[in-house]
Amino acid sequence: MFIELVERPPAPPSRRRPARTADDDRLTDLALAARAGGAGDVDAFVRAFYPEVWRFLAFLTDVEAADDLAQDTLMRALGGLPRFAARSSARAWLLAIARRVVVDDHRYRAARPTTYVADWHGVVEHRVSGPDERIALTELLAGLPDDWRRAFVLTQVAGLGYAEAADLLGCPIGTVRSRVARARERLRSLIVTAEQRAVDTKIS
Fold first, then answer.
1. Is 116 exposed, middle or buried (0-12, 13-18, 19+ CB in 10 A)?
2. Which parts of the sequence belong to the RNA polymerase sigma-70 region domain (predicted)?
3. Could you name the CATH architecture of 129-204?
4. Is this prediction's pTM over 0.90?
């Protein structure tokens, strides 16, 4: 099965940040180059990060809000580049800014009732290559409670560490681990049900 449902062993107590990938390093280098102020480097930074920022914001809010929020996020990031010291990856830094933008937007809209529909499909589409696998994973994830799905998508699909996911979701790391564990159990149950239904269909 394409979804890894085996529980990860608990990480030992540590303050070490999650290991960066080659892509993290590439994007961080782009951010550091943009910090130097070259117009071409700033443009490359925006072009590299905009799609992922947009998908992340669409996941946290909705596709209609994501356009404006992505622009706001990148404007804040460009303003903060002189202070970016690469202590974390540029991706984690930028997604943390995106989350703060969402929080600020929610506060702004608090006086006016509005409904946000979490659109996590873009994250799945970006991270899962095969169309059949994307469809299957999307259908399975639709059966999860929102909190479980967000924790699972961030850590198991988007590839963030538990600490990064906890920071982005604004909850303790233990809560993220608990939600991911519960999501795995629910997904196992959904997979078993789907496989049994397929067997019953063939028999009939």
1. middle
2. 45-110
3. Orthogonal Bundle (1.10)
4. no
